[in-house]
Amino acid sequence: MNDLRRASDEQGIARRIRADLLFAAVGLSCLLLGVLTLSVLFLEMAVQGLPRLGIDFLSSFPSRHPGEAGILPAWVGSLAVMLVTAAAAIPLGVGAGIYLEEYAPRNALTTIIEINVTNLAGVPSIIYGLTALGMFIYQFGLGRSVLTAGLTLALLILPIIIVATREAIRTVPDAQREAAYACGASTWQTTRDHVIPGAAPGILTGIIIGLARAIGETAPLIAIGAVTFVAFLPDPPVLGEAPFLSAGWLHAPFTALPVQMFNWTVRPDEAFRANAAAAAFVLVLMTLAMNGLAIWLRQRMRRHVRW
Asked: 227 — alpha (psi -120 to 50), left (phi > 0) or beta?
């Protein structure tokens, strides 16, 4: 009887080991398929776009001649829009996440808010563009400007930042809060000195994920009237004389790299597709730079977190 039981246990262990190996093989295959697809697309984009990439391409204005066209207004516009997006979305998103997780009472209203925030993270981006068209342009009269574009993308990534902030806060052990309360700290002191530093790496990850999504969006920008051909740059934010700071660039017409790429891909001339590939390469490099900065900051923050 003992031999039969032992043999059955050994067979069960062998089956579980085979199942684990099979799952690992399937997971590795899925990973390699995704990496291979991304590598092929990136390689094709590099082959098409690198011959056009250069200083002239980065510093020139658009043109109806593909060999003379550049992306200067597009990448400057992308940076300006992302600056407004970050300034609007990060404080609101992180603050809302902290309030919902640390301060909000657990009742039906809070539950409804949490469900809606989670659902908004999956709403198609064109819906945000149409909402911004009616609210920011027609209702508030902000015009088809950098400010409108930045606020539109801020609405788009706000649910992502809120959800990521809440998930990061939940990783902080309750013992940290209880120890702070036992020492007489208030809720804000506990949140400021213990919860936020512990959750900062996860919060930063959510912020970068949101910004990386925003920088590549096209549909909401087209919906609010992004200009596909811009032969000028917005006013500089810093002036050489008093008052030294200017908000004129916020109200300037704009374009962005995704919009410029879309405009080039629908042109019948094949040479414009090489320009679109080069612009896509620049956009990918900008996104990778943002992610690299986030990884570096996250690693520095994690060195100071001790649980």
From this structure: beta
pLDDT of residue 51: 82
Q: Do residues 70 and 58 touch, judged by C-beta distance below 8 A?
A: yes
DSSP class of residue 245 equals: B
Whole-model pTM above 0.85? no
Cβ(114)–Cβ(167) below 8 Å: no
C-beta pairs of 176-182 under 8 Å, 24+ apart in sequence:
176/307
List the chain residues with pLDDT less than 70: 1-9, 239-244, 302-307
Name the nearest CA neighbour of 69 among 268, 284, 218, 260.
260
| List of residues 6+ apart from 236 with CB closer than 8 A | 246, 249
CATH T-level fold of 55-303 = MetI-like fold (1.10.3720)
Side-chain half-sphere of 136: how many Cα atoms within 13 Å?
26
pLDDT digits over 120-157, tens only?
878 888 888 888 888 888 888 888 888 898 999 999 99
Is the bond into 66 cis (omega within 30 degrees of 0)?
no
Contact 245, 253 (CB under 8 A): no
Give the span between the Cα atoms of 107 and 162, in whole angstroms: 19
Rounded to whole angstroms, the Cα distance separating 204 from 197 reads 11
* pLDDT for position 217: 83
